[in-house]
UniProtKB/TrEMBL annotation:
Subcellular location per the Swiss-Prot or TrEMBL entry: Cell inner membrane
Source organism (scientific name): Gammaproteobacteria bacterium LSUCC0057
Alphabetical keyword list: Copper, Membrane, Signal-anchor, Transmembrane, Transmembrane helix
Role, per record: Exerts its effect at some terminal stage of cytochrome c oxidase synthesis, probably by being involved in the insertion of the copper B into subunit I.
Listed Pfam families: CtaG_Cox11
Protein name from the UniProt record: Cytochrome c oxidase assembly protein CtaG
One MF annotation (Gene Ontology) recorded for this entry: copper ion binding
Length: 184
């Protein structure tokens, strides 16, 4: 009988511990992560349209912007920047193109998620138009050129001489059924 009580006590303690860990992960970790990202400047920034106000172009400075494109492991598309690197003057508007082709025999929808390095430059790289703002529906075998229009803010710290803007393309077809239906 004491063995059963001992087992119940252990199971009860382990169950309470598991519930406590779940609660910690659910309620405590997200605010801590947000605080950490705010303090360090690290984190994913949402892909938002920037309304460009006229600013003076700084022709005395040049910033190298390298573009990269990768596919999530479940994304069977060809995806690459058409210009892998540009040298820009802060304050001037630039446009680059990315190429995408649906290599499957099925209609699909992709979504590109941006990432900028160094992270501290995120407040200074402004996208006025970007294929990452919307889902990208492609019919089977279809290929497209997708535009990214951006401005590097003249307030970019002078210590930052180069940026890397990368996009990861994800298959969002299962959650974009209405978009796929429009292709047919």
């Amino acid at each position: 009988m004491s063995t059963v009580k001992s087992h119940r006590k252990v199971v009860t303690k382990l169950s309470l511990w598991a519930v406590g860990m779940f609660g910690f992960a659910l309620f405590v970790m997200p605010p801590l992560y947000d605080l950490f990202c705010e303090i360090t400047g690290i984190g994913i920034r949402p892909a938002e349209r920037y309304e460009a106000a006229p600013v003076a172009v700084d022709y005395s400075r040049e910033v190298s912007v390298t573009f990269a494109a990768t596919n999530n492991e479940q994304m069977p598309w060809a995806f690459r920047p058409m210009d892998s690197k540009v040298v820009v003057h802060p304050g001037e508007r630039y446009e680059v193109k990315f190429y995408a082709k649906n290599l499957t025999e099925n209609d699909m929808v992709g979504q590109a998620i941006p990432s900028l390095v160094p992270f501290s430059a995120g407040d200074y790289f402004h996208k006025t138009e970007c294929f990452c703002f919307n889902n990208q529906p492609l019919a089977a075998g279809e290929e497209v050129e997708m535009a990214l229009v951006f401005v590097v803010d003249p307030e970019l710290p002078s210590s930052i001489k180069s940026l890397v803007m990368s996009y990861t393309l994800f298959d969002v077809t299962p959650v974009a059924a209405d978009t796929v239906a429009q292709l047919q």
